[in-house]
Design a protein that fits this description.
Layout lengths: L2 E6 L11 H12 L3 E6 L9 H11 L3 E5 L5 H11 L5 E5 L1 H5 L2 H5 L4 E3 L6 H10 L10 E3 L46 E2 L18 E2 L2 H15 L3 E3 L9 H13 L7 E7 L8 H6 L2 E9 L3 H6 L6 H13 L3 E6 L8 H14 L5 E2 L12 H10 L22 H8 L3 H5 L6 H28 L7
Parallel strand pairs: 1-2, 1-3, 3-4, 4-5, 9-10, 10-11, 11-12, 12-13
Antiparallel strand pairs: 5-6, 7-8
The chain binds cobalamin and iron/sulfur cluster.
């Protein structure tokens, strides 16, 4: 048995709940009998600098440390790993960033880098390291001696340990005001998305759409309800409605479960993957909000970013969700390199046009060129932003909204720090329109936020 410390290095923005991907690997390690502790340096109510993190690690004395790296916290993760070096025998990195840049953590002193889903491979790595023999070649694993490929997408999602088994690895006071309440991190009912938008960095879950049985999802929801009193469930799937039969089967199974009678849930899906006639069934099963990926109101931009949808489809889906009694959340992005003032104006027009049916727009939304995306590959040399994430100044830490006064939070949401990064050297006209769009969304949201939060707890219609 090994002692494993899983660390989320500080992100630019704080997390209001433990990160689901980290809980998933913690649960997998626990199921294998290892002793696991998690340290979430991005948690909304934890103020711990790197020195404090090292002290925390020393107190636990782990055999293995595992860092979860997004692109936005990779540089901070590497700096932290240097300080943690004397504490752990082995440091492993995984997450969205090592999945597309597996060699980078190794070049920054980390021993093992993992590309792809971690539930099967991390326990195997820990076993291998603890055996005292050289690490065998494992799918998805790179070491300084052996460059690996990406781990294969996990086919049997029902066979994975539930993230809730890892709740005990976190200190509830990092997230909850009373210091005791466990704040759940949501769940995934499916993984993967068949689309390939040019800005999207979902390489961990990938394109292969896989889903859990309805019985497995309902059993996890029931356990969350019975053990932690949870009655609201954010589903973090990439594309909840990608496959109608499975989505309908899940809705029916939730409806049939007595303990979930007043449960509510939310989901994310691209605008073109929603069939308006399915929304009523989803609402009856407790779906209170759909988060639609729409991105642009300009047909040419939608084509260039391979979004595969038209503004009229999106309008129909959003209106149908509203008519079904759901809260609608709409994602709009600004600043694609091909975007000029006219196409931006069309996006602004769509936002205004949809406003009566949209409860909430994603805040900000200026395009970040994440590595691995088509946009990054196509433009990094041209615009000179190769490897931008390694410069910590380009991923500044933001004030913690959980501890700021409300008017300060609103002021922060009305500007997008990514615009100052000027990845794509916007013209003044484009920059002004983007700034106006960000401001417009923040003000729309300010007017609707209370209504949105209230709707999350409204029970399903009879
Ligand atoms: C849910 C979600 C969130 C939630 C998280 C809520 C929660 N409590 O978990 C919230 C809304 C907070 C969030 C925020 C953000 N998110 Co987000 N998010 C997602 C989403 C949709 C699902 C994450 C998930 O649960 N995936 C399922 C699990 C199975 O995958 P996973 O999380 O990657 O974890 C697996 C592996 O990475 C690996 N792993 C993870 N850690 C480790 C550690 C070790 C040691 C090992 C070996 C393996 C390993 O094993 C895990 C289990 O298989 C993903 C898209 C996606 N498909 O992943 C985007 C995604 C992760 N998010 C992304 C981004 C960019 C963000 C934001 C920066 C957006 C923003 N501008 O605000 C912020 C960043 C956070 C911040 N505070 O600064 C990007 C990351 C890209 C990148 N290269 O970094 C993704 C991929 C979206 C995308 N399509 O581009 N996000
Ligand atoms: S539809 Fe969403 S999850 Fe799928 S590729 Fe596009 S942005 Fe990514």
């Amino acid at each position: 048995m090994a002692r494993v410390l899983l660390i989320m290095p500080r992100l630019p923005q704080r997390l209001g709940a433990p990160y689901l991907g980290q809980q998933a690997i913690a649960a997998a390690l626990l199921a294998r009998g290892h002793e696991v502790r998690c340290l979430d340096l991005a948690a909304s109510r934890l103020e711990l600098d790197d020195r404090g993190a090292v002290a925390f690690a020393e107190a636990f004395a782990p055999d293995v440390m595992g860092l979860t790296l997004f692109t936005n916290n990779a540089a901070r993760g590497y700096a932290l790993a240097r300080q943690l070096r004397p504490v752990a025998r082995w440091i492993v990195a995984g997450g969205p960033h090592p999945t597309v840049c597996p060699g980078e953590p190794l070049a920054h002193g980390i021993d093992v880098s993992v590309a792809g889903e971690g539930e099967l491979v991390l326990p195997a790595i820990v076993d291998g390291l603890m055996s005292g023999r050289p690490l065998p070649s494992l799918p998805g694993v790179s070491t300084r001696d052996d460059a690996g490929t990406c781990a294969e997408a996990i086919a049997d999602l029902d066979g994975l340990a539930w993230p809730l088994h890892a709740y005990g690895c976190y200190d509830p006071s990092w997230y909850s005001a009373d210091g005791r309440t466990v704040v759940p991190g949501g769940l995934c009912t499916s993984r993967g998305c068949p689309a390939r938008c040019t800005f999207c960095a979902n390489y961990v879950t990938g394109r292969a759409y896989r889903f859990r049985s309805a019985a497995s999802v309902v059993a996890e929801m029931r356990a969350l309800h019975d053990q932690y009193g949870v009655m609201h469930f954010p589903f973090w799937d990439d594309a909840f409605t990608a496959l109608r039969p499975r989505q309908n089967a899940l809705c029916d199974a939730i409806l049939a479960e007595p303990s979930l009678k007043n449960a509510t849930w939310t989901c994310i899906t691209p605008g073109n993957m929603v069939k308006p006639f399915d929304l009523e069934r989803m609402r009856k099963a407790g779906c209170v909000a759909v988060n639609f990926g729409i991105e642009s109101g300009d047909l040419d931009i939608l084509r260039v970013i391979q979004k595969g949808q038209r503004p009229e489809h999106v309008r129909a889906a959003v209106q149908a969700a509203k008519q079904a009694g759901m809260t609608t959340v709409v994602n709009i992005m600004f600043g694609f390199p091909e975007e000029g003032p006219d196409s931006l104006q069309r996006t602004m027009d769509l936002m205004a046009d949809l406003a009566p049916w949209v409860d909430y727009y994603n805040n900000r939304g200026v395009l970040v060129p994440f590595p691995g995306t088509t946009i990054y590959d196509r433009w990094h040399a041209h615009y000179g932003f190769t490897g931008w994430w390694l410069d910590v100044a380009r991923v500044p830490e933001e004030p913690n909204p959980f501890t700021q006064p409300q008017d300060e939070v609103q002021r922060l949401l009305e500007i997008d720090p990514t615009l100052d990064q000027d990845f794509f050297r916007y013209s003044d006209a484009v920059r002004d329109l983007i700034a106006a769009g960000v401001r417009w969304k923040a003000r729309h949201n300010q007017a609707t936020i209370a209504r949105m939060i209230a709707s999350y707890t409204s029970p399903a219609p009879p």
